Amino acid sequence: MKLRSYAADLINDPVDFARRVPPGLNRRWHARWDPIARSELSRAASGRSVWLARSLHHRVGSGSPAKPLVLRFANPHASRLPELEWFADEVAQVSGGAVRIRFVNTWTTTDNPREETCAVAGVTRDHADLGWAGTRAFGCLGVRSLDPLQAPFLLEDYATLHAVCRGDVTREMLEPLDRLGLVGLVVLPGAQRKPFAFARRLVSPRDFLGAKLRIH
Question: What pLDDT digit, counting tens, does each position of 111-153 carry?
């Protein structure tokens, strides 16, 4: 019965099935469609096909007002963060309403521990136009340029955090994402998180030596 249901999902909406791949096939799916393993040529061909289809769509009925370009945004979580709402509002304002963002929440299954890297993979496979992931996620994909933003005590307050995100240094940090077939647009400042422990105090860099930290 499950196989029949999966087959129906695949036929009715192959893109939706691709991002909600059944848990039993998850390991095999990642082995075949890992974003790093996919060739640059294949990504370029897919991208050209998407933009060609859009251009043809906009040419039809050119006498009528052009419809806004709606970009699918892969959101790995069930709700949208405030910084994502700000980003969408800025895109609509700067484009004069010509470009809008449609968030696709819960991009993967709720029990997927790799929900953020799965959202990244959705963008590299052209299942989504845009997506986001915490800076922590890109180190798992082999890009370590954003790691300094995870360093404890480096950004001590929100004023420093906002200054760094508005500076040129983040553009340099985002450039290595092209190895994944991605274009890094912006680092959005969000809520800072503080580590805690029961067995020791974490109040200085020395306290982190040898410590094992659990993260989401």
Answer: 888 899 999 999 999 899 999 999 989 998 999 999 988 887 7
- What sign does the dihedral 165-168-171-172 (CA atoms) show? negative
CB neighbour burial string for 62-74, b if at least 16 within 10 angstroms, e if fewer: eeeeeeeeeebbb
DSSP string, 10-73: HHH-HHHHHHT--GGGHHHHHHHH-TTTS-HHHHHHHHHHHHHHHHHHHHTTTTSPPPPEEEEE
* 176: three-class secondary structure by DSSP: helix
User: pTM above 0.85?
Assistant: no
Q: Which amino acid is at 74?
A: A
pLDDT digits (tens, 9 = 90+) for 21-54: 555 455 554 544 444 444 444 444 444 545 555 5
C-alpha distances (whole Å) from 46 to each of 18, 121, 203, 212 are 15, 14, 49, 41
